[in-house]
Amino acid sequence: MTSYTNAPPRPLQLIGNGNGGINSPHQLHHTPTPSLRPLQLIGSGNGGINSPHQLHHTPTPPPRPLQRIEPLLKIEQENDSETAIHTEPDDLDIVHSIEESFIRNEIPCDRYNIAYIIFYLLGISTLIPWNFFITADDYWMYKFREIKSNKSQCIDFNGIENSNKTNLQTRFTSYISISSAISNTLFLIINTFISKKISLSTRMIGSQLIIIIIFIVTSSFVRINTDKYQNIFFIITLISVVLVNAASAVFSGSLLGIIGQFSAKYITAMSAGQALGGIFTALTEILSLWIGAIPEVSGLLYFIIGDIILLISLIVYIILEKAAFFKYHVSIKIEHLSSLEVNIDDEISFSCEQISYSQILKKIWQYGFSLFLIFFITMTVYPSITVLIESERKGYGHVWNDIYFVPVVTYLIFSCGDYIGRILSGVFIWPRNKPWLVILLSISRGVFVPAFLYCNAQPRRYLPVYIHDDGFYILLMILFALSNGYLCNIVFMLIPLIVNSKEKEIASAMLGSFLGIGLSIGSSISLLMIKSL
């Protein structure tokens, strides 16, 4: 080894581990001297130098003790499985590599699939307001019936003839669709711009609280006699629909922003949950018809069940927010890596590229346009036209044809087909990376519009009925529902794959805006479709 010498020379001191080795770089020291002699080489005994560490030279100034070398990466594990990173790199690229390594190796697990189940329930809750307002058809027909005498309160509205419906009864579904779609679209767009200004927790919890309050108010009207104030009650109902759908838009738009940070498994859970909510609502209506509940009781049943589901949804979301798995994807993965400023040990800070709305829109517009087409075509005829389609054997005294045909075919079969379509898309995920093919498939669904118009929708004055057969109508409904669910979920799953991490929340919120615009325009045209029959 090499040592620094003078008269008398003092050799380099090594603090060993007891067996001739050096424990760490922190154990390497030397003894400074007042003056230095020329460089000396201490060999291995055979004329060689043992290692590169044995070669030294004599610097001009007196040498200072070697500084302790800190580890480059220090990770402290906390009880909730989150990781704190402390480092002092000289190159910003090192920061990125460390962060990426952390993301790759320290992912908390979804124990017992709790988050998966909660996303399913949250998906159900996003469409509970829409489903319960639309599906409670028997209750609304009772509230807006023609009042001639007190005896009218005993009429059975399950099998009421469409030709005998009042204007409010005939057009109520379409009015509800339009008012809900417009408010939904407006607030989906607003949510896109407030997502970075209002915290996620405030948007998610606040919107759910508003929905619950409005549902409670709506439930209270079930037992109030509104026969003499039908028009006033109609206006109050529309205002309630606007408010509940505005809150629902913020809720669903925020949920889309969250779910875009997770894998396709969780996206499918949320999407399938939306369809499952329709199945649940349809079964609730069919159950109330089966037990023979009067319209007031069935209406009360709908909205109380809705209140319970929404309350449970709020509670489980609050629980989900505290889970390490959720925090990793939403708090750490988004805010830590994709925030506008990243700080490490309060010494290094740098700004990332500002999020560009126009750049995100350029990436996703084809899939967004596809989603617009999907819901535009669906809302043009569903449920405003399909709810008017009667069985070819209605009026012959058969319970299936007179009572169960509309709730089963229009609501239950559609919701089941929509659900199955979303599940299938999560399995096959086709087409990939072919946005124009998705657009063409979405446009092809336009054939369902004239097909449903020529089914047995009543009342009608202009168009003839070409499709009388119940079986053919049911087949149309199945294909209509399957294609809606499949293409819808395909778009939801492909969007996160074409944007980077910091853009996912905004991209998903923009996707919600395309969806809402499709709902609004489709619902508006549905009223014209009813008049064209």
In short:
One of its GO terms (cellular component) is plasma membrane. By secondary structure, the chain is mainly alpha-helical.
CATH architecture type of the largest domain: Up-down Bundle
Beta-strand fraction estimate: under 5%
- Largest sheet geometry: 2 strands, antiparallel
Order of helices and strands: EEHHHHHHHHHHEEHHHHHH
**Low-confidence regions:** 1-6, 12-31, 39-58, 66-103, 149-155, 335-352
Q: Based on DSSP secondary structure assignment, what is the total number of beta strands?
A: 4
Give the overall form. Answer: globular
Pfam families: Nucleoside_tran
Main location: membrane
Membrane topology: Multi-pass membrane protein
GO molecular function, one term: nucleoside transmembrane transporter activity
